[in-house]
Every structure is written in structure tokens, then in C-alpha cells.
Amino acid sequence: MNKPGTSGLIFNEELIFERSRPNRPGVPLNPPDVPLRDAGDLIGAENLRDDIDGFPEVSELDVVRHFTRLSQWNYSIDTGFYPLGSCTMKYNPKVNETAAALPGLADVHPMSPDSALQGILGLASEVEQILIEISGLDRVTLQPAAGAQGEFVGMMMIQAYHRARGDHQRKRVLIPDTAHGTNPASAALNGMEVVEVKSGDDGIVHPAALEALLDERTSALMLTNPNTLGLFESHVEELAELVHAAGGLVYLDGANMNALMGVAKPGDMGIDVMHFNLHKTFSTPHGGGGPGAGPVAVREILEPYLPSPIVRRDGEQFKLDADRPQSIGRVHGFHGNAGMWIRALAYIRTLGAEGLVDVTETAVLNANYILAELKSHYDVPHDRTVMHECVLSDRKQQSTGVTTADIAKRLMDYGFHPPTIYFPLVIPGALMIEPTETESLEDLDRFIDAMRSIAEESKTSPEQVTSAPSLPKVRRLDEVRAARKPRLRWTQDQAE
Ligand SMILES: Cc1ncc(COP(=O)(O)O)c(C=O)c1O
Fold first, then answer.
1. Would you state the pLDDT for residue 250?
2. Looking at ligand 1, which residue's alpha carbon is closest to its atom 16?
3. Pocket around ligand 1: residues whose beta carbon is below 6 Å from it?
4. Which of 251, 351, 395, 460 has minimal CB crowding within 10 Å?
């Protein structure tokens, strides 16, 4: 079992400035074998800098060791378990990277004529066909660069659809209280009015609650399924029927398709439009705000509004078709973040159809295993079979003053990345754990042992938990101040 502080890392590194010793050389240069020139003559005396005040004097080895150690503190999926609920931090197989870096794909110039893009357009078409098959819908765009942009695009298309039918008053989007924050944001950015749908005590939306909110102003229901409590919205078909009967459309936030793919198709549940998060479901890197991919799948009625251009097959040839007068227009340069959907294709092709089903089943099994192993130690707000993630809370620990934030910090002492905390908002003190299918039973057990130990410590020595983390040099930061007023420069007086 992991013991706190046994990860082998010592989180107590001097700053490079503090390692400085007067006259310690960095890399000594050999005497030049060409005549010396005055640097001022070359670049202008005004561009020469005198000594840099406080510049660290360190040897090459000091520098190498310092930065190598710092790089090892960078927690990543390649170094350890990353149970961030709602983020699906699954391992990204390296073969995906190899595929995306193939020169024939990575070096394609996006302004090339269609005739010179046949290979990559063929792959785009293949990814689209696979997503059509998984979604049970009719057409896909690969352009959106993230899940949130997919939502935005979906809302735009829904609005275009209503406008084309003269239904200008349909501006209301009904969104459950368990929704991911990007859902109401995407609707509001489209100028739509967001109306919250309250989930029932069992954590899912009930038809009666939705029905009471439907009228001629309804544009869409925006549903996340499975929802952010990890629960399957089992009334989805009835909800969709009600929305359709009221003249609205049904949007699925399909970011959690890793719980459904290969097992159930949103199109069969009455969904009209959905986005995928390739960086969650299909293991592509999350990018830290960098390139992602949020393809959108639609039912035929929405095809005219898809972003332009779309990939069309013309006999044996593929072409980019931009002659689409009802399209909402282009939403991304060229054809989306191609490297991302190529990585997703590598993942899908490696696994095959049966492998994808196995992914789904294992992701669901792992989440239920963690829930079963932890439920006698932590409060479980909705004690039911979950899908890809489970939500616990700090209710049992509160009597000794231990909170969710403390539990998350203490996990760092045990060498784990904390889960998502305080989300979804409907559960006070939520701890949202998503193991994904890529973790082995041994790694799940190590995490479970750490969580159980923390529950025990919360009873017997709560100060160990409330003062965590104990390993880093700086233990509890004022996190808001650190974000708002970061001190990014070392100054001499800090050394004194
Ligand atoms: C349920 C859900 N919806 C939407 C999003 C937004 O996706 P992105 O971060 O790619 O914009 C996420 C992100 O993790 C999510 O978990």
C-alpha cells in the first residue's frame, strides 16, 4: 500500500537563484581560435547589456539536476492515476502520436487543392462514418475545436433550424441542474435564454419536471447523458418525445460517450444533435487549452446548417463542399484540428468495434468498483449503479472538521492527483471520481487504499488531513491570491 511520502519525490527544491554561488562557472568555453571582435561593433554598443542583477551563477550540472527534478514533479497521466471526474483522463496510447506525426499527414498543407488532399480527406470521411455509426445520427462535422465549441455550434444550428421555420420565438434552452458549466454558457453565448430543470432526488431528470417548462418558446433540451453525477438519464426517450411534441429539439452533451459507445446509440434515444469530446472518449490529449476536437453529429433535418465546408464523396474522389447556402458558416480554420481526429482514428482502429465495447464496459465496471469499495468510508449521495464515474461527499468526515478540499490535498501526499472536487454543484462537498478503463485493478486498489487511509486519519488524526499536503515546500497557498496576484519573479530580498 502507498504510504504518504513514499513516492520517492522530495518536494523541497531550492530555487535556481538560491543555488547560486559566486563565480561558479556554467559552461566554460574554450579560447576562440579566430580573432576577437568587439561585440558592440557587431550589434551596436547600445544593445549590450551589463551584468544581470542577481543572475544565478550555477554549473551545468546544477542546472540539469534542478530542471530535471522540477520536470519530475509535473503530474501527468504518464506518471500516475488521474481520477478527475468529468475529464476522462485516460492514457493516450503512443501509437496515436506516431500516426498523427506521420509526415504524409502532419506535413499536408491545408491550402492544397482537394485533388492533393485525397488521403487526409479520406481519413476525415472515415472518422465521420465511425462517429455516425456510434451516434446513430446522420451526418458529422469535424470542425469544432473543443466540446464547448461543439455545444456552441449545436446551439447555432438549432437556432438556424427554428428560424428557417419562422419559429423566431423559440429561444429557451432547458438545461438540468447537473449540467456541465459549458452548457448554459454555450446557450447564453448564442443569445438564448437558459432555464434550469431540477433533477429529482434520485439525481436524474423526470418527465414531469421537464413538461412543466415546455411551451412555444422552447428551442431545445440540452441533456448530458450520463449526467455529471455519473447516472444514466433513464427517462431520456420520454424526455425527447415531450420536447419534440412541444416543437423543440434535443441536444446531447456527448462528452461522456465513454460510458455508452458501442452499447447504446443516442440517435435511438431521440437525440437530434450531439457533440463528442474526442479528447475524452477517444484518448486524444487534453491539450491544456490547446488543440482539442469536439465533432458534432446531427440528424438529417439539421444537415443543411452544418458548418462549411463538409467533406463529400464524389465517386472515387473526396472534396470539400462549401456550396451550402443554409450553413452556419465556417467555425474553424481549414478542417478542424486534424491531428486530433487522426489520433482518435488510430485509437478506434487499434481497438476495433469489439474493443470499443470493451472500453465502455471496463470504464463502467471500474467506476462501480471504486464506488463499492469506498461507500462504507464516504457518504454516497446517490447510492445506485453508476456509469463511468461516481460521486462521493465529505459528509461523514465533517464531524472532525475534515473537508473535501483537505481530502484532495492529502491524496497528494499519497502520490495521487486529486479527483474533481465541489462539482457537480448539486452535491455539497462533492468528490467526483472517474477512473476510466485504462487503469489496472492494482492501481485502482492503490487509490482505494489511500482513500480509505484518509477516511481513517480523518477520524483518528484529523489534523494530518487538514494540514496536508505535507511534502511540498509551500504547503497551503492562498489559492485565490496566487491566481489573481501571482508572484512570478524572484527578488534579492526573498533570499535574505
Ligand atoms: C460533460 C462535459 N461537457 C462539456 C465539456 C466541455 O468540453 P471542452 O473542455 O472540450 O470544451 C466537458 C469537459 O470535460 C464535459 O466533461
1. 98
2. 86
3. 86-87, 146-148, 180, 182, 224, 228, 253, 255-256, 277, 292, 294
4. 460
What is the pTM assigned to this prediction?
A: 0.90
147 CA → ligand 1 middle, Å? 5
Q: Whose CA is nearest to atom 8 of ligand 1?
A: 147
268-303, pLDDT tens digit by residue?
999 999 999 999 999 998 865 567 899 999 999 999
Pick 286 or 305 by higher pLDDT: 305
- Whether domain 94-349 has CATH 3.30.230.10: the reply is no
The pLDDT score that the predictor gives to residue 465 is: 98
pLDDT at 9 over 80: no
- Give domain limits for the chain: 94-349, 358-482
Q: Please give the grid coordinates belonging to residue 22.
A: 559566486
- Rounded to 5°, the CA angle 131-136-139 comes to 60
Is the model's pLDDT at 456 over the cut of 50?
yes
CA distances, 174 to each of 147, 192, 340 (Å): 19, 10, 31
Nearest atom in ligand 1 to the alpha carbon of residue 150 is 11
**CATH architecture of structural domain 358-482:** Alpha-Beta Complex (3.90)
Query: Phi/psi at 172 (nearest 5 deg)?
Result: -95, 130
Rounded distance between C-alpha atoms, residue 154 and residue 272, angstroms: 10
pLDDT tens by residue, 95-152: 999 999 999 999 999 889 999 999 999 999 999 999 999 999 999 999 999 999 999 9
Distance 277 CA to ligand 1 centre (A): 7
Sign of CA dihedral 108, 113, 115, 118: positive
Question: What is the rounded CA–CA span in Å between residue 365 and residue 357?
Answer: 12
pLDDT at 30 over 90: no
Q: What is the mean pLDDT of the chain?
A: 93
d(CA 276, CA 25): 53
Residue of 84, 143, 180, 282 best suited for mutating to test ligand 1, as the one with most atoms within 8 Å of CB: 180
DSSP 180-206: -THHHHHHHHTTPEEEEE---TTSS--
